[in-house]
Amino acid sequence: MTEAEALKKQREIEAILFTMGDSVEADVICQALELEWEEFDDVMSALMKKYEDPSCGLQIIRLESAYQMCTKRECYDALIRVASTPVKPNLTGVMLEVLSIIAYRQPVTRAEIERIRGVSSDYAVNRLLDYGLIEEDGRAETIGRPILFKTTEAFLRQFGLSSAEDLPEIDEMIQDQAKENAYLEAGVTEEERKKLEEPEEEESSDMTAETDEHPEAERSEADELSEFDEHSETEAGSGAEGNPENNTDDASEEGSGLTGHLIPKSDDAE
Question: What's this model's pTM, rounded to 2 decimal places?
């Protein structure tokens, strides 16, 4: 591409971004101007550098795989004198916590947000949706198909980011502090915390482990029950076999006694 062709493409891209106002995907621009990706990258880099001049009140920013033309931050004071004051998000501590969870874990469900914070987050999520900082991103392939949330381009502009990958790393200490603040704000007791942080899987695995640790005890109890049943059957059998003989002897004794009583004694015997 010659220098003249590159300047022409810069003017065309500049016109597209200015007219559209919102961000435009790089693929759309490449297709419209019949540019290869490498050519587009060179032309866009030169155009963005041109707008970095301090004498220019506009700038071109990258938002993930899209580009947008907008005013520079230092011109904001002058703009609000002639334009209506834009609605600035009033982000509370709770909203910032929820927003940070979505930003770092996106796409994420409302239930997962509440599991991390330990408290309900409906109000914060709804307010962030109203401010346009987050949006729905389809549904999760789980039971109930809950809605997934992700951050928007407005979020990137608000925090001066080009991509979600530009987010600073967050350590476990900050996460623990955020959870602690959420618990304090919601008035969660120590006992309720333990229930919230106690996973059900560990309980079931512990029960399984206890059962596996004492198989001999279970077998010994079964053996004892078996021996007890055999012993009971033996006693019952011996008792049943002995009773007829005893009954026969008693009957014979009773019969002989009756015979001697009924037959009178003869005179010869006397």
Answer: 0.45
